[in-house]
């Protein structure tokens, strides 16, 4: 017994030396977590492409979550599975255990679990490049053992649940359930600058029905108000990455009043928004409403391919040419115009010309893989789906031009140009860095107000000097109804607009960041 006691004491003393507490105490009862920021780099983007090619990640998660399946199946969609953390730029530090073991995590409003690498992760290379949680070093650890598995867009983690105290700023969340990751099957996690994820979404999407860290902060009375807020610093010259504030918001981070919208559905921080404008022109698809999710774990703004192609066209972005798209325009373009001019219902146009095999009850959104990544060897049914989707997008594009009283020739030229702007399966499009001044603003209608992004705010610069490359901050992601059409407003959007997540009143607020 004496030997065991001495060994335990020595182990805890060693852990105390290895994992010092580094958090400071705020003086205004707001809990501030400073965020670190890094630039998007070519190595990470190359890794993302390798992930896509080797694992065919985008096709896999579209199939698994039925993003281009039947309407009756679309309730099974899990947006967490679409997440790609490769370009994540903002990280903060937390501690787990007593004494504290420190980890760098993404504070992610688009998922709900907390996970970090486990000391029992023996066979994943990624675990050897990040600190690992050692339960034997914590005197507040409690075993759980329930298995856990989370599938992301570019990889997966698996492991088991454990329970321990989690330190966030100067708050200590007691008895927090979290995942010890024993397998990280992705190049993403190997070269990532973060160790794990701390989800700030709702319990409804929590794997294993684990109570999220944020819920326990509120339930244990650790915050003054059931509110947290994000300020992301988009100044590339500033070393300060931003701040997450738990318990309220810091007036220094924004100006004016917040525009609030109600949370539509608990799970994600999801709300209803209106039209998307390029300059002062409508893009059509969201004029009657779209859903949107605010997601701090996503770098880009993603939305329906039909709209992203219009944005890419307006900003001169170069994407992947879709042969199916040009074929539809060549063979059916004039017929689509004639049917729309004859006041036929737009949703039934594609079925009337034989490209869709149903009566127009389907939405224009479907799996992007079937639009921009169909191969000749695939089954004819899938090819037919691709042609149907392209037709539905073409109807949207033609409608927008007819509203502007354009000629038939100009409409067909415009739609052909949009075909050239369809984004790649990775959603990436490149623009000329010297053309930013000529690009239009892109605006979102939220809560009856127009929230506008300038080119300097929606274009991401990769690299420096002559080797610099400018990437469109817009990516394509198609989600069918009832959940879609859907936009995911990531860091590009949150960098411009200070964002408040009001859990008590089930609402989200936006104000111009300072």
UniProtKB/TrEMBL annotation:
Which cystines does this chain contain?
121-127
Which Pfam family is one of those matched by this entry? Asp
Q: Where is the active site?
A: 108, 295
Q: Where is the signal peptide?
A: 1-24
The Saposin B-type domain, residue ranges: 320-360, 384-425
Q: Write out the GO biological process terms.
A: lipid metabolic process; proteolysis
Q: Which residues form the Peptidase A1 domain?
A: 90-511
Q: What name appears for this protein in its UniProt entry?
A: Peptidase A1 domain-containing protein
- From which organism does this entry originate? Gossypium darwinii
């Amino acid at each position: 017994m004496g030997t065991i006691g001495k060994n335990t004491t020595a182990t805890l003393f060693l852990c105390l030396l290895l994992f010092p507490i580094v958090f400071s105490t705020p003086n205004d009862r707001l809990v501030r977590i400073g965020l670190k920021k890094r630039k998007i780099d070519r190595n990470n983007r190359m890794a993302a492409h390798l992930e896509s090619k080797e694992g065919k990640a985008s096709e896999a998660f579209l199939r698994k979550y039925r993003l281009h399946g039947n309407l009756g199946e679309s309730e099974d969609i899990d947006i967490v599975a679409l997440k790609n953390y490769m370009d994540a730029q903002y990280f903060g530090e937390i501690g787990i255990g007593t004494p504290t073991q420190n980890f760098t995590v993404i504070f992610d409003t688009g998922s709900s679990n907390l996970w970090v690498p486990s000391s029992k992760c023996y066979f994943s290379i990624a675990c050897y490049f990040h600190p690992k949680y050692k339960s034997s070093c914590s005197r507040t650890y409690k075993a759980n053992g329930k298995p856990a598995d989370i599938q992301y867009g570019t990889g997966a983690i698996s492991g088991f649940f454990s329970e321990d105290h989690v330190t966030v700023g100067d708050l200590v969340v007691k008895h927090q359930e979290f995942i010890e990751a024993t397998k990280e099957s992705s190049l993403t996690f190997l070269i990532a600058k973060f160790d794990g994820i701390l989800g700030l979404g709702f319990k409804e999407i929590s794997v294993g029905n684990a109570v999220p860290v944020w819920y326990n902060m509120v339930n244990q009375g650790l915050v003054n108000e059931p509110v947290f807020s994000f300020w992301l610093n988009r100044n590339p010259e500033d070393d300060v990455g931003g701040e997450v504030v738990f318990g309220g918001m810091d007036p220094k981070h924004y100006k004016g009043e917040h525009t609030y919208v109600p949370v539509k559905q608990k799970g994600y921080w999801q709300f209803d928004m209106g039209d998307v404008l390029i300059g002062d022109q409508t893009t059509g698809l969201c004029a009657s409403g779209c859903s949107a999710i605010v997601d701090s774990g996503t770098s880009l703004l993603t939305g329906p391919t039909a709209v992203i192609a219009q944005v890419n066209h307006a900003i001169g972005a170069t994407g992947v040419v879709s042969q199916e798209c040009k074929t539809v325009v060549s063979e059916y373009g004039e017929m689509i115009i004639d049917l729309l001019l004859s006041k036929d219902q737009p949703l039934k146009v594609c079925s009337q010309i034989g490209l869709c095999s149903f009566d127009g009850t389907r939405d224009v959104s479907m799996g992007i893989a079937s639009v921009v990544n169909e191969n000749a060897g695939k089954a004819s049914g899938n090819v037919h789906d691709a042609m149907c989707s392209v037709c539905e997008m073409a109807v949207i594009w033609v409608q927008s031009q007819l509203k502007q009283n354009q000629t038939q020739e100009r409409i067909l030229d415009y739609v052909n140009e949009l075909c050239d702007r369809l984004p790649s399966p990775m959603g990436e499009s490149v623009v000329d860095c010297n053309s930013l001044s000529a690009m239009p603003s892109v605006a979102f209608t939220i809560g009856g107000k127009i929230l506008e992004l300038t080119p300097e705010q929606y274009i991401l610069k990769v690299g420096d000097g002559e080797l610099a490359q400018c990437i469109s901050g817009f990516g394509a992601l198609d989600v069918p109804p009832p959940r879609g059409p859907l936009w995911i407003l990531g860091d590009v959007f949150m960098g411009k607009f200070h964002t408040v997540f009001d859990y008590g009143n089930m609402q989200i607020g936006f104000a111009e960041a300072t």
